[in-house]
Design goal:
Length: 364
């Protein structure tokens, strides 16, 4: 069975879905591997590196002449038109909000595996692209945020006087939020965090942060994701965090709800509370943003505060992001194609969760 590594078409995307090292491992498993020319350039993996790993380099329509097509982002209409009947497409598909893409893949008579739909269970952790990429994004969010601040993070004691540490507030204690907390602490900031799930308090405190509790109202989690918060919870959270928000130098927001617009966490009134020179780094910008003024891939200057609408942060760390993404796919392929032939056992919880289209029929 032949696997084709496609070049990413999304503007600004530097990652590649499979690296030369993982390509070599797949070849040992019995797969034939080809790569679209220059697919790995943005992540610093040359065509020659793929050839040395045993893969062949192809261009144009030949890249779609394969049993399995792999990339990071959802396919374009032009790409779907080249997908062969009976082949398998593997990428992030975000099927809950991309019904047209799923229907188009089904009309081609293909199979479609959505990497973002892999269940967040212990057995699937090694395949979880959302977590591996969010981990890097959380780190990068702090670095990007620091770049927009007009002050340093750590306490600094000098003969000229003492510089107090920066204050960082993190909304959302998932994978990205935890990494943001850890990174900000390593840089010397005083960190606070809030989340709809009270059980994350222990995680925040283990990293040296302070957890802002919203008392009397709980939301919890489901399927590894935070449930959508009620209006009652949002009101209580707003009251609990406003003091910290007004004192924060950098605010990082990470809240997302699968298949829906990102929840509004900071409204116009709250933005008005923020101090001069403060920064909000909104990691949910592509899904509508967690603030009322967020614009994706834009920096909005409000006078007192600056809002950075972060987009595709993992791509700014393209080498590491590609390495982790590739290993996630490799682990998945070890499950569905251990002998070089892909087979879908839908009795398996992981396969059942991520197989969105099977033999031209949409399953979800």
């Amino acid at each position: 069975m032949k696997i084709s590594i496609l070049k990413e078409l999304r503007s600004g995307e530097k990652r590649v879905s499979l690296t030369p090292n993982v390509a070599a491992q797949l070849i040992k498993m019995g797969f034939a591997v080809q790569v679209e020319s220059q697919a790995g350039e943005g992540a610093h993996f040359s065509d020659q590196a793929y050839e040395q790993a045993g893969a062949s380099v192809v261009s144009g329509a030949a890249a779609y002449q394969a049993d399995c097509l792999v990339q990071i982002n959802p396919p374009t209409a032009e790409q779907i038109a080249q997908v062969q009947k009976g082949s398998t497409w593997i990428s992030q598909l975000y099927h809950l909000s991309n019904a047209d893409t799923i229907a188009a893949l089904a009309s081609q008579g293909a199979n479609a595996v959505s990497l973002d739909a892999i269940p967040r269970i212990s057995r699937a952790q090694s395949m979880d692209v959302l977590s591996s990429q969010a981990n890097l994004a959380g780190y990068r969010a702090v670095i990007e945020g620091a770049g927009h601040l007009d002050r340093i993070f750590p306490l600094l004691m000098t003969a000229a006087g003492t510089v107090t540490p920066a204050k960082v507030l993190v909304f959302g204690v998932g994978v990205a939020g935890l990494q943001a907390i850890a990174t900000a602490k390593r840089l010397g900031a005083v960190v606070e965090a809030t989340d709809v799930r009270p059980e994350t308090k222990e995680q925040v405190e283990s990293l040296g942060g302070k957890f802002i509790e919203v008392k009397g109202v709980e939301v919890g989690s489901e399927g590894g994701y935070a449930k959508e918060a009620s209006e009652e919870y949002r009101k209580a959270q707003r009251e609990a965090v406003n003091k910290s928000l007004a004192q924060a130098d950098l605010v990082i927001t990470t809240a997302l709800v699968p298949g829906k617009k990102a929840p509004l966490l900071i409204d116009d009134e709250q933005l008005g509370l923020m101090k001069q020179g403060s920064v909000v780094l909104d990691m949910a910008a592509e899904q509508g943003g967690n603030t009322s003024k967020t614009q994706a891939n834009q920096v909005v200057d409000l006078g007192n505060a600056r809002i950075v609408g972060a987009v595709n942060l993992p791509s700014t760390l393209s080498t590491n992001a590609s390495e982790l993404f590739a290993r996630n796919i490799w682990e998945l392929l070890k499950l569905i194609g251990p002998k070089g032939e892909i087979e879908f056992n839908t009795d398996d919880e992981i396969v059942d969760g991520c197989l969105i289209v099977q033999n031209g029929t949409a399953r979800k």
